[in-house]
Design a protein that fits this description.
The chain is of the alpha/beta class. Helices cover about 50% and strands about 15% of the residues.
Length: about 375
Amino acid sequence: MSEQSVDKPTDKPELLVVDDSKVIRIAARKMLGNDYVIHLAEDGLVGWEMLQSNNAISVVFTDLSMPNLNGMELLENIRSSGSDNIANLPVIIMTGHDDSETMKQTVFDAGATDFITKPFESIDLVSRAKAYARLSQKVVELEKKTGYDKLTGLYNANLLEEQGAKAFSFSHRHKLAISAVYFEIADFQNCFLSYGKKVAQHVIVAVGKRLQEAMREEDIAARIGVAKYALILPMTNKHQTEIVIERIRASINKLVFDTGKEKIRVSFTTGYTTPDIGTDMAFSELLEQADDALLRAMSSSTEQVVCFDDEVEIIEQQVVVTEQDVQQAFEHILDGNFYQIPGQHLDTVMERLSPFLQYVENQLGNETELDKLDKNIAL
């Protein structure tokens, strides 16, 4: 379970400290808590999950030796991430006196930004936090000024806000239709994990190119997440928006990517909104409606395209636990790594173990009665 400071002021840089030692985590929070929002994780797996869900983290401090996902593996995940924001994060490795120079060189070659030796002095931790948080902020500010996504050439989220707000204001003032469309590449995480960063980036770039080809001059397209895109379509009603969406989806469905082992295709999940002309709303609300529709489409087992105004029945897909999953769970139990068993598999594992546990209980009960009998005979 992750830990973080109670108060979270928005004007403070956010740091992540990953260490299986509670003493180190508490010490880091005490030394840095006045000037930074501190997120604490007890292992690399928790730290990785926090990075994926929080784009505001600007510096990572991590130990090397940890359960579940060690510091080296966490560093590799960060540097190979499909998100530029995560891949470019400064990562400070917290080493012990027993860590060899060879180990440090290996970690440095893997992409470590800097090192700090435990137990560390307050001034060492503070100075590194200050230097690298400032560096991250400068990178973010530079990306905001350019306004373009480096990988696809589309607008980034900031330029989408700026240009989209202008287009929305014009449409609102002149009583013209306008639509917002959010796309997300389906199962992109599995694509990244299965085929690696190079293939994943190729997919992102190819999809961005198809969006550019489908755009009119007045349309606005942006990449706003790792595999998430947005379109603002001025002077476009609901019917016209649906035509644009189908044209883009058909174009994307024709793409074939050669992974070196097999050829794969990708598909989009889509959410869109076309508010009534004259509706009193802000541009941010337009984007929120499109995002809400996208989330509903991603949760639906039947609909890949959802309009904000549509009623969509959300059906939770039943988790299928295979025989291989059960065997893997038993191996984790025998190795003492039972915490690696996915939560959705636990009911099935317990169901399989139940007869054995009942047998053990009966055997132990019988042995207890026999012990009592032996004692009585002895007396």
